[in-house]
Amino acid sequence: MSPVVSTLARLRALHDLDFELMTYPERKVHLDPKRQALLLEIPPPYRSLYERIRAAKGTALATVKGNTCVGCNMHLPPQLINEIRKTQTIHQCPTCKRILSPDLES
Ligand SMILES: [Zn+2]
């Protein structure tokens, strides 16, 4: 697995965990240690990027569905879609700045 793919997978796991924390605050005691462990596995630049976007937007990760960013529903340029599918670097949505995660089902 390339470093970008594993970083994206961890960011997605973190995103899911944060969603769970938001939905079920009573699970915090149980989820916080998991969150800390997960954070340590994410390279520091992406860790701080994630936290920064999450603080500003509520969620830091957006899936790309078709040619649309699910975070803000804006269409993404075809060239960017191709780049995202290659998963060689991590991209941010030009509009909402969320970290773009390729839709792995498509
Ligand atoms: Zn967006």
SSE map:
Elements lengths: L2 H21 L4 H13 L3 H14 L3 E5 L2 E2 L8 H9 L12 E4 L4
Bound molecules: zinc ion.
Structure in a nutshell:
The chain has 106 residues and is mainly α. It is built from 4 helices and 3 strands. The chain has one domain: Helix Hairpins.
Structure description:
The protein has 106 residues and is mainly alpha-helical. The chain has one domain (3-102): Orthogonal Bundle (Helix Hairpins). The protein is built from four helices and three strands; from the N terminus they run H-H-H-E-E-H-E. It has helices at 3-23, 28-40, 44-57, 78-86; strands spanning 61-65, 68-69, 99-102. It has a three-stranded mixed β-sheet. A hairpin with a 2-residue loop joins strand 1 and strand 2 (68-69). It is globular. The structure holds zinc ion. Zinc ion binds at residues 62, 69, 71-72, 74, 93, 95-96, 98.
- Overall tally of structural domains: 1
> Which regions have little confidence, pLDDT < 50, spanning 5+ residues?
none
Bound molecules: zinc ion
Helix residue percentage: 40-55%
Largest pleated sheet: 3 strands, mixed
- Overall geometry comes to globular
Q: What is the CATH class name? A: Mainly Alpha
CATH architecture: Orthogonal Bundle
Question: Roughly what is the average pLDDT, rounded to an integer?
Answer: 94
The number of strands is 3
Discrete helix count: 4
Give me the strand/helix succession.
HHHEEHE
Which structural class do you get from the secondary structure elements? mainly alpha
Strand order of the largest sheet: 2-1-3
Q: According to CATH, what is the topology? A: Helix Hairpins
Could you state the oligomeric state of the chains shown? single chain
How far apart are the termini? Answer: 19 Å
| Beta-strand residue percentage | 5-15%
Rg, Å, rounded: 14 Å
